[in-house]
Amino acid sequence: MKNIVTLILSFCFIITSFAQTGKVFDNLSIKSSILKSERKFAVYLPPDYETSKRSYPVLYLLHGLGDDQTGWIQFGEVLRITDAAIKDGSATPMIIIMPDANTEKIGYFNTIDGDWNYEDFFFEELMPTVEKMYRIKSTKRFRAIAGLSMGGGGSFIYALHRPDLFSSACPLSAFIGPRTVKEYKDWQGRLGNKITNEDKIQAYLEAHNAVSLINNLSLEQLKSVRWFIDCGDDDFLYEGNSLVHIAMRKKNVPHEYRVRDGRHSWTYWRASLPEVLKFVSDAFHQN
User: Fold this and answer.
1) Per-residue confidence at 103, pLDDT binned at 50, 70, 90?
2) Residue 80 belongs to what domain range?
3) Residue 200 lies inside a defined structural domain of this protein
4) CATH number at residue 229
5) In angstroms, what CA-CA distances link 44 with 97, 178, 208?
6) pTM for the complete prediction?
7) Which of 37, 49, 109, 115 could make a disulfide contact with 45, Cβ separation 3.0–4.6 Å?
8) What CA–CA distance (Å, rounded) separates 169 from 195?
């Protein structure tokens, strides 16, 4: 009898432990008419998703250059870190959507010549699709965006282009991009692209450079988003992040700016993720 009771208790412990674990699915896709292709994405679902009927806040988590929708799962350990943050109460249960921006053409923005409009896809197709597919609270307060490197740049620009959609933005080691026409032409030249129309380049830069957007947006728009900026002191992208910080300081935009010991690496970003989860949860919570 004692052995049976022990087995039952052990079984209950296993079931309870399993129930405290979130789930990730890393090979999902939707059909995009804008990009004329299937687009992959990954999702993290919190531990109680399958046992509850409620809706959840959402974090859009963007990968960097060279990775895809699996980057934050494989290297960022999003399952382990998010489960732990929810368990210790530093983060509220949330859904995390991780899109793939590394297929066919690379990046989160519409291209200058308009032949690959990834940003249009993100806002017009990906967001509406996943927010119907999962029980997501589809309002500004319960929506946040974060990302690393190229995805950090995407986080900046998406939140600056659409401050009406995101309560928080957390760029990590963000690639701010070229700031001058010459820098842009040199950068595109290294990629094998020859773009010569300097007026067109200038207009594109003003719409896709975080510093320019901060200078041109109203203070009310900028303050409507909670900002968390994090970049290592040995990161080769420190200058651009510092310039964004300075631009926000000059305009009196409230923001958190973190410079920790570290370089452009997954070791740094894994340490950043718990802080990101806590920061976005502060907006998600009912005070």
Assistant:
1) confident
2) 22-177+211-284
3) no
4) 3.40.50.1820
5) 7, 33, 29
6) 0.92
7) 49
8) 31
